[in-house]
Design a protein that fits this description.
Length: 152
């Protein structure tokens, strides 16, 4: 009887040790998004003043980079060097969530920045089937930006 109990305890300890010794699989996580820009000062001002992002320290200190915090441990890197503005497809866009799309639109209008719905209707927003409002506009380098009021 003592042997059976000892074997059961030993088996349990062995099983617990192997389960506790296992680690959860590590999945990739987003670290940063890099955007190649023609005029770093103009783009930095745009993402700071229009979008409302906070810049963070970048390690290069070479005048060719601006980094912004866009989430927990996630950065947006602006990198200078693009030769000219290039227009990009709206399907490839950056998206930022704000508390109020209407308040954001006021800021765009004050700055004379045109915006549109997903369908391309100027000065309009899209109302998704889940109730989220969204607008689209371009940054100084032709990258599309979506602003929405999604709640997670």
């Amino acid at each position: 009887m003592k042997i059976k109990i000892s074997l059961i305890v030993l088996a349990f300890i062995s099983l617990a040790g192997s389960v506790l010794g296992q680690t959860a699989p590590v999945h990739p996580s987003l670290n940063h998004i890099a955007v190649y820009v023609a005029d770093l000062q103009v783009s930095t001002g745009f993402y700071k003043d229009v979008i409302g992002l906070d810049s963070v320290a970048e390690p290069f200190h070479d005048g060719k980079h601006t980094w912004f915090a866009v989430g927990p441990n996630i950065k947006l890197h602006l990198i200078s060097g693009a030769k000219k503005k290039e227009f990009h497809d709206k399907n490839a866009h950056l998206c930022f969530t704000v508390p109020s799309v209407e308040a954001f639109i006021v800021n765009l209008k004050k700055r004379s920045i045109p915006f549109e719905s997903w369908e391309g209707k100027q000065g309009a927003y899209t109302l998704r089937v889940d109730g989220v409002k969204q607008i689209y506009f371009m940054d100084p380098d032709g990258y599309w930006i979506e602003i929405n009021d999604a709640r997670e």
